[in-house]
Amino acid sequence: xxxxxxxxxxxxxxxxxxxxxxxxxxxxxxxxxxxxxxxxxxxxxxxxxxxxxxxxxxxxxxxxxxxxxxxxxxxxxxxxxxxxxxxxxxxxxxxxxxxxxxxxxxxxxxxxxxxxxxxxxxxxxxxxxxxxxxxxxxxxxxxxxxxxxxxxxxxxxxxxxxxxxxxxxxxxxxxxxxxxxxxxxxxxxxxxxxxxxxxxxxxxxxxxxxxxxxxxxxxxxxxxxxxxxxxxxxxxxxxxxxxxxxxxxxxxxxxxxxxxxxxxxxxxxxxxxxxxxxxxxxxxxxxxxxxxxxxxxxxxxxxxxxxxxxxxxxxxxxxxxxxxxxxxxxxxxxxxxxx
Length: 339
Ligand code: GDD
Prior knowledge:
Strand content: 15-25%
Radius of gyration: 20 Å
CATH architecture of the largest domain: 3-Layer(aba) Sandwich
Order of helices and strands: EHEHEHEHHEHEEHEEEHEEHEEEHH
Bound molecules: guanosine-5'-diphosphate-alpha-D-mannose
CATH topology of the largest domain: Rossmann fold
Strand order of the largest sheet: 3-2-1-4-5-6-11
Number of strands: 15
Helix content: 40-55%
C-alpha cells in the first residue's frame, strides 16, 4: 500500500507517518521548501523512521506539481493535512489562508479526479466549522457556522470534497476533528505555549506566561489517537464524514491550572478579562492575559459527540485531558532540562 501525506511536517504528519509505516505502507510526504531548510516535525522522527519516508518537495498551491505527483505515484490513499492551520493568523492573512486551504484542497481534489480516481482521500476538516455552537455536544448534524477566515476556508474544503465525492463517485472522507495536541505541537498553539511556559517557570524562569482569552472552552485530545481515526476512515466501506473528539470540555484556564498542577505549583486567579492574572502561593504573577492575544471573534463552547466514529469505526480516544496535559508538561520539563 502506498500513501501520500500532505503536511507531513506538521504534528499530525509526525504521528500519521509512523502509524502508516508500522502498518507496512510506503509513505510519501509533500514538503514545502523553506529558506532555512527546516523540516518541521520530520526532524523529530527517529532516524530509522525518517529515512523510510519518500519526500517530494512542492507546494499544494502548485497545481502542476500535484498533478505530476498523483500521476506518477497513484497512491491507494492520500491524507490531505497541509494547511495554514493557525486560526489567529487567519484574521491577519485571510488571503494566504484561502489560497492554501481552499486553492490547495481544490488542487488535490482535481488531481485525484483527473489522474488517480481510485485514490481514497482524507480531508482534515475541523471543529472550528461549528463557530460558537448553541447545541452541546456537537456532532455531524450540528450546523456549521464558521467564525474565522480559517474556518471559512475549511468549510469550502469540506464542501469541495463532499461535492466531488457525490458528483464523480470519489472516495473522499472528512474528519471533523476537535483540538488535538501533543509533545510535538507547534509552540504558537495555546496548549504548547502553556506546557513550555510551565516547564520554564518550574526550572527557574521569572517570565509569566502571556495568554489571550482564558475562558475559551475547547475539547482537547491527543493527536496520536486521532491519526488512527484518520486511517480507519479510509478503511471504511464508504466515504463519509466523522466527528472526532473526547467528549470533555475544558477552558484555557483549566489547562493552565492542570499544567501547573503537574509541576506541583498551585495557581489562584485574580481579576477578570484582560486584567486577569494567575498567582503562585507566594503572590508571584505566573500568568497574565493580554488584549493583543484575543481574537476578533472567538470560536468555542466545544464538546464532541463522537458516537458515530465509535459505532462505525470502533474509535475511542485513549488519552483524555488530564493525561494529555501531563504528557505535554513532563515532556517540556525534560526538553528544557536537557537543553
Ligand atoms: N494560540 C493561542 N495563543 N491561543 C490562545 C491564547 C494564546 O496565547 N490564549 C488563549 N487562546 C485561546 C484561543 O483564543 C482559542 O480559543 C484557544 O486558546 C485554542 O487556540 P489554539 O491553540 O491556537 O487552537 P485553535 O482552537 O484556534 O485551533 C486548533 O484546533 C483546531 C481544531 O482541531 C488548530 O490546530 C486548528 O488548525 C484546528 O482546526
